[in-house]
Design a protein that fits this description.
The chain is α+β, with helices and mostly antiparallel strands and 382 residues long. It contains 15 helices and eleven strands. The protein folds into two domains: 102 residues, PH-domain like, CATH 2.30.29; 234 residues, no CATH class. Helix 7 crosses helix 11 and helix 12 runs antiparallel to helix 14. The site of zinc ion has 6 residues, from helix 7 and helix 11.
């Protein structure tokens, strides 16, 4: 009887073609082996081979085994070693004449095993990607991924894009226009309970008719958009809409969707840092992210509610988007990122009609003065 389970397979003269399992021990002079009649451990002869009689190489079906061969006057034997502990013990005990072929063989075995792990890794990864890809059609997975992104990370992402953008712009630092935008933002933000975002609004001197909010709460309002507004409630309406894109994390949803399921997988498995790098590689432009129809509707409806709670006439949002769409369609950046469709307008109007009447609280600033300081003649309208 032998004291351990077989750890090698031996082939040779007088053995069956399928080989004989054996228990190999590494000794000071070489290897001793007990051949087993069957795997239950019935001993069927033994052998002892000095190192000096052996040659070694890598072999086996996948070339991931150490093959030891020797010739005795009566027989030729080949031993296949797969057990890593046994191979290690063999390498430690083997004399110098075996060491260089052993190292070569061991290196080959390592390479093959590494390749196997890689192949299985790729196969496993592809299956995962396939499953996620199938799931991705539903927005469930996007939301799942977005939920895993911490607010701080979102803020960092938005702030770096914000700084990059503002670097090339003429920022209006102070004055009645800035004060007016700040007042509107404050009125709205005060009505958001447990708001995790700090809204940071910047007025940019530019005739571009646009306003945008970045993930994390950085908001940019262009003076060109303010010039088009006949009433302050129109600007407040755009702000309410933009703030709700932030609160509902619509920007992140678009980014995640645009980057695809590889990004989602990396987020779910905890690699949020990698996403920033991925975004740079794919050249996602945060400023020109176009929102989806469902997101526009959500920002519209939650925006209307927010205006209502802040006691700002909610109709401004609808009239402004509609007027811009009628007059300037195709030339207004605000509409290119927030497309105004007739169904969107109809839904907004229906929602507004269903809302209880609000008695608006006036703004502290005077809109006429704001318009004058923007260079708009108050008598001619827009
Ligand atoms: Zn929008």
């Amino acid at each position: 009887m032998v004291d351990t389970a077989p750890n090698a397979l031996c082939f040779g003269d007088g053995f069956p073609a399928t080989g004989v399992p054996c228990v190999v021990h590494v000794e000071g002079h070489g290897l001793t082996m007990a051949f087993l009649h069957n795997v239950h451990g019935t001993e069927n002869g033994s052998d002892s081979v000095p190192f000096s009689d052996m040659t070694v190489s890598a072999g086996g079906l996948d070339h991931d085994q150490l093959v030891v061969k020797w010739n005795s006057p009566t027989e030729q034997r080949t031993l296949y070693l797969k057990n890593p502990d046994l191979i290690r013990a063999f390498r430690q005990a083997a004399p110098s004449h075996l060491s260089s072929p052993l190292e070569r063989a061991a290196e080959q075995v390592r390479q093959v095993r590494k390749r196997h792990r890689l192949v299985w890794g790729v196969v496993g990864g592809s299956l995962l990607a396939l499953v996620l890809g199938l799931w991705f059609g539903s927005d469930l997975l996007v939301e799942l991924a977005v939920d895993r992104i911490p607010i701080e990370w979102e803020q960092k992402l938005g702030e770096s894009a914000y700084r990059d953008f503002l670097g090339g712009q003429e920022v209006m630092e102070e004055g009645p226009v800035v004060a007016a935008v700040e007042e509107m933002t404050r009125r709205l933000a005060n009505q958001i309970p447990d708001n995790p975002y700090r809204f940071d609004v910047t007025v940019v001197k530019s005739d571009v008719v646009n306003a945008f909010a970045l993930p994390g709460g950085s908001v940019v309002v262009f003076t060109g958009m303010m010039k088009k507004a006949e009433r302050p409630e129109e600007v407040a309406g755009v702000l309410a809409h933009e703030l709700n894109h932030v609160l509902q994390r619509h920007g992140l949803e678009r980014i995640v969707k645009q980057l695809g399921f590889v990004a989602v997988a990396s987020i779910i498995f905890g690699n949020q840092q990698g996403l920033g790098q991925m975004m740079k590689q794919l050249g996602v432009e945060l400023m020109t992210l176009k929102f989806g129809r469902a997101q526009e509707t959500e920002a519209d409806l939650t925006g209307l509610q927010l205006l209502y709670r802040a006691k700002i006439d909610p109709s401004g949002m609808i009239t402004f988007f509609e007027r811009l769409a009628e007059k300037d369609e195709g030339r207004v950046e605000l509409l290119s990122t927030h497309p105004m469709s007739s169904s969107r307008a109809e839904q907004l109007k229906a929602e507004l009609a269903a809302m209880p009447t609000v008695t608006p609280e006036p703004f502290v600033f005077e809109w006429d003065k704001i318009r004058t300081s923007l260079g708009v003649s108050t008598s001619t309208g827009s």
